[in-house]
């Protein structure tokens, strides 16, 4: 009886501590989860087929990656509908290695964690043959770093410059240079509202309303986001090396950033054209401001009411050399180098607008359907992604 009393006291103390910390219930739950045709969330080592063997074993791994201060839970809605539509094709693994405050550790550190997590999943699922990545916000940069670590060449080409020539010669959406990611065939690489060009440039953070004073203040206070803030604001210039985001537009230091991206059959960027106060349209769509399509060219498909424009993949023939990442010094020069470097590959660009939605003020989360209660209007964007996925 005495021990039971002590246990009761401990429970009451824990309840009192929770009441004293109401913010604790708002924190993302840590940990990853894998969803397959079995219909239940599984651990990273669980099998994807039913025990009775009545259902074909899915062979396509879809890895989802959360953004800053996010968690694996943020992709639960998308994971559920992936499995609902293609139960025999995909296993969805919602990464949990970079959640909450761990998202301040830097793109490189988080990229290594993600690569290790993906390797663990693949090792425990020998039936897997294909791999795709779906990432939100900062998660897109983390995924780009991780695939560079996971990339394995399966050709005899020693120079990525040869692959660049092939990319320009064949702008097809299906073009890839060969190679594997974690030993699997790379299929889709998709990002939602990801700051591919960083957040340092003018108007890249819409919340600051284009004010140079506010942008300068944000640049000075970027340390609040830890090493990730330094990477996003291109402040990580050390040992005469270019900032990490510039390194990532070429194969740099033994890491095959562009070769890994090129190996995917399809690369897609979903971008908010308005109301995203966190990540600007330019940096998320990898386009220049004047390339925003005019209003009359927008489309509005009844099935996807918030998809306003889809640009077919194309390759921009530009002069680019690795030396350019060292020569760029000003903000505008660095942005131009990243634009040229990334646009050597064909990207499918999908513009999204929540202008008429009551959830438009949460556009950065709504495009992902972070939580269905607050972001349900983004469901058609997720359905668009799933419907156009290559399986």
TrEMBL record:
Q: Which GO terms describe its biological process?
A: lipid metabolic process
Region annotation Disordered: where it falls in the sequence: 1-22, 37-58
- Give the top-rank taxon of the lineage listed in the UniProt record for this protein: Eukaryota
Q: Give the organism the record lists.
A: Setaria italica
* Protein name (record): DUF676 domain-containing protein
Start and end residues of each DUF676 domain: 57-283
